[in-house]
Amino acid sequence: MPVASYLPEKNIALELVRVTEAAAISAAREQGRGDKHAVDQAAVDAMRQVLSRTDLDGVVVIGEGEKDEAPMLYNGERVGNGEPPLVDVAVDPVDGTRLTAEGRGGALAVIAVAERGSMYAPGSLVYMDKIAVGEEAAGHIDITAPVAHNLAAVARAKEKDIGELTVVILDRPRNADYIRQVREAGCRISLIGDGDIQGGITTAIPGMGIDILLGIGGSPEAVTTACAIAALHGEIQCKLWPRNDAEKQYAIDNGLDLDQVLSTRDLVDSDNTFFAATGVTTGSMLRGVRFGGVHTSTHSVIMRSKSGTIRFIEADHRVEWVEGEIKP
């Protein structure tokens, strides 16, 4: 078989969105019930079911289960129906399981794909320090520089006063120093409880009102975000963030450089990335699933870096449930 046939030539994001739609619909049925495990299980089951019918030969490089101790599409799992193209897969069946379980907004079902061997694998190091911006500020950030330096650089690039910037930060104790420094610089802050995939992406979509993402969040989310940032011509930089001495030793034992600045290209070494996300609960970027009798509506975004195509998709589904499975 010619090598080209192993590479994704068509826009498979149009097929991947069926995967995220199914996961979102299943997860949304558990909204507000207080059970994170049930949210994840429903999304994983639906995502795996639809992926099994999708034309790709995929290997999961980035999964969520190891960090969250949740039901998972596990690292190394083969997905798709085995037909070309050969791809790496990053999945987050629900980015925001807690949000969904508590009935809060901003949860997404997410999948990203790129050529086989192109995605960075952080192994058991599940957190990264991150900075992300959109196209206007790409090339002007440096994760090793002080926070105030980066904020001033982004403000200049976007022709704004520094006080006009809005910074999105994951609301965690580990990010307290980031929050302090941003406030001292006089910038606005949008604190998010979960979902820093969405946080990173909104820096690069015009009209979202977010100028820069800062702070420590998940490593899987960083790689997944990079697939979208590549299509949006933005920039993400990251550094591995070990939580303890055991994780530092893990990095040494596995040849992972804790001082390395990981660029967008380091996170996904591809000019042909695909990204799809569907809203589970309504957030700043996508509306959540809406149930209405036999029809269920979803709101999704799909992206492809090779063409720079970004599509927002509103869909009405006639969903039938037979023995717990979604029947298209």
Catalogue the unreliable spans. Answer: 1-5, 65-70
Per DSSP, the total helix count is: 10
Span between termini? 32 Å
Task: Please compute the radius of gyration using only Cα atoms.
Answer: 19 Å
Average pLDDT score: 91
Q: How many strands, which pairing sense, and closed or not: the largest β-sheet?
A: 8 strands, mixed
Percentage of residues in helical conformation: 25-40%
Q: How does the helix and strand content classify structurally? A: alpha+beta
**What does the oligomeric state look like here?**
single chain
Sequence of secondary-structure elements: HHEHEEHEEHEHEHEHEHHEEEEEE
Strand content: 25-35%
What overall form do the CA principal axes indicate? globular
Question: Total number of β-strand segments?
Answer: 15
Descriptive notes:
The chain is α+β, with helices and mostly antiparallel strands and 328 residues long. Helices cover 29% and strands 28% of the residues. It contains ten helices and 15 strands. Strands 1, 2, 3, 4, 10, 11, 12 and 13 form an eight-stranded mixed beta sheet that branches. Helix 1 packs antiparallel against helix 2 (36-51) and helix 7 packs parallel to helix 8 (219-232). The longest helix has 16 residues, at 13-28. The protein is globular, with a radius of gyration of 19 Å. The two termini are 32 Å apart. Mean pLDDT is 91; it is low at 1-5 and 65-70.
Provide tags for this entry.
328 residues, alpha+beta, 8-stranded mixed β-sheet, 5-stranded mixed β-sheet, 10 helices, 28% strand, globular
Quick rundown:
The chain is α+β, with helices and mostly antiparallel strands. Helices cover 29% and strands 28% of the residues. A hairpin with a 2-residue loop joins strand 11 (290-292) and strand 12 (295-304).
